[in-house]
Amino acid sequence: MLYFFTKVEDMGEPSYLGEFELMVLLTIIQLGDDAYGVPLARELAIRRGRDVSVGSVYAALDRLETKGLVVSRLGEATPERGGRAKRYFRVTDEGLRSAHATRNVLNKLWKSLPLPGKELA
């Protein structure tokens, strides 16, 4: 039996972000080096005007880290957390490029949006 494998290389195309991933990425930038799950969820809830679960924030952080758009580091263990360490996140250069690329695409799409009351093409 023959097997054919194809290696797909990154061709330098930008990675566009979904709405929630973009919000998480921008919030990490705002919070700086102290960005971790609970403050991220709290800040996102304030900005969005609705609750954000810490679980959904960590799911997005895992996706962003897998894509190489954020990196994490473990802090010191704290008694308040039962001896567990906090996982801090920071945006990579690639993450910043991806945020800018996503913004550029969204800006183009917004510019083509008709005003309310106008007919859609």
Walkthrough of the structure:
The structure is a single chain. With 121 residues, this protein is α+β, with helices and mostly antiparallel strands. The chain has a domain at 19-76 and 84-106: Winged helix-like DNA-binding domain superfamily/Winged helix DNA-binding domain (Arc Repressor Mutant, subunit A, Orthogonal Bundle). Helices cover 47% and strands 12% of the residues. The chain has helices at 19-31, 37-48, 54-66, 93-111; strands at 70-77, 85-91. The relative contact order is 0.16. Mean pLDDT is 84; it is low at 1-11.
Residue stretches low in confidence (pLDDT < 50, at least 5 long) are 1-11
β-strand amount: 5-15%
Mean pLDDT metric: 84
Q: What is the level-2 CATH architecture name of the domain at 19-76 and 84-106?
A: Orthogonal Bundle
Q: Report the span from N to C terminus.
A: 53 Å
Sheet having the most strands: 2 strands, antiparallel
Broad shape: elongated
Q: What is the spatial order of strands in the main beta sheet?
A: 1-2
Given this structure, which CATH class of the domain at 19-76 and 84-106 is correct?
Mainly Alpha
Share of helix among residues? Answer: 40-55%
Overall SS class: alpha+beta
Compute the CA-based radius of gyration: 19 Å
CATH topology of the domain at 19-76 and 84-106: Arc Repressor Mutant, subunit A
Tell me the series of helices and strands, N- to C-terminal.
HHHEEH
Strand runs, count: 2
CATH superfamily of the domain at 19-76 and 84-106: Winged helix-like DNA-binding domain superfamily/Winged helix DNA-binding domain
Determine the number of helices (DSSP H or I, runs of at least 4 residues): 4
